């Protein structure tokens, strides 16, 4: 491991890198949600034989912080940042439209017979989420860029 002072120089870059990784994963989920906005058949059938529509995916973020922060702070082994803790599928958010002639309509004799279940993916919600994820991604890029410039200037002081 590097001495404490050298390791601290790169800490901001490492933390921002975790932000880049999680925001990129979030943007991929958003793209997947938009692409599957009208997906009625995911290849999965319910117990009653009906189509199971696509379920919107959202990330759950959590912080990464060493449990032994005070002990590790002396050694600079502290791991900080953010990660995607889990991906939650919002299966209960669907839109039902009555269309008994549609191939994906619920079978007669089952609950909601004749209804077609559509994923409740809102294009405007996804675009708003995309703007947030994109801004956070750019902020992390700025942190890395500024940290690199500061490190470079600090090294040039000794010349």
Structure classification: alpha+beta
Helix count from the secondary structure assignment: 4
Count of DSSP E strands?
4
Percent strand: 15-25%
Largest sheet: spatial strand order: 1-2
Largest β-sheet summary? 2 strands, antiparallel
Weakly predicted, low-confidence segments: none
From the alpha carbons, calculate the radius of gyration and give it in angstroms: 23 Å
Average pLDDT metric: 85
State the order of secondary-structure elements, H for helix, E for strand.
HHEHEEEH
Distance between the termini: 26 Å
Helix content: 40-55%
What number of structural domains do the residues give? 1
- Outline: elongated
Describe the protein in words:
The chain is of the alpha+beta class. The chain has one domain. 46% of the residues lie in helices and 19% in strands. It contains 4 helices and 4 strands, in the order ααβαβββα. The protein has a two-stranded antiparallel ribbon. A two-stranded antiparallel sheet has the order 3-4. Helix 2 runs antiparallel to helix 4. The chain is elongated, with a radius of gyration of 23 Å. The mean pLDDT is 85.
Short description:
By secondary structure, this protein is α+β, with helices and mostly antiparallel strands. The protein has helices at residues 4-9, 11-35, 69-75, 123-157, and strands spanning 56-65, 80-90, 94-98, 115-119.
């Amino acid at each position: 491991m590097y001495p404490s002072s050298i390791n601290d120089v790169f800490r901001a870059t490492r933390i921002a890198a975790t932000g880049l990784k999680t925001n990129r994963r979030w943007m991929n989920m958003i793209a997947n949600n938009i692409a599957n906005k009208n997906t009625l058949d995911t290849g999965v059938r319910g117990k009653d034989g009906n189509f199971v529509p696509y379920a919107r995916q959202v990330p759950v973020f959590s912080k990464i912080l060493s449990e032994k922060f005070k002990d590790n702070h002396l050694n600079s082994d502290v791991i900080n940042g953010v990660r995607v803790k889990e991906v939650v599928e919002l299966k209960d958010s669907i839109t039902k439209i009555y269309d008994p002639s549609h191939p994906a309509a619920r079978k007669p004799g089952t609950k909601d017979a004749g209804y077609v279940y559509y994923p409740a993916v809102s294009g405007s919600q996804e675009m708003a989420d995309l703007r947030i994820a994109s801004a956070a991604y750019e902020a992390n890029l700025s942190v890395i860029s500024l940290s690199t410039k500061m490190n470079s200037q600090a090294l040039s002081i000794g010349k």
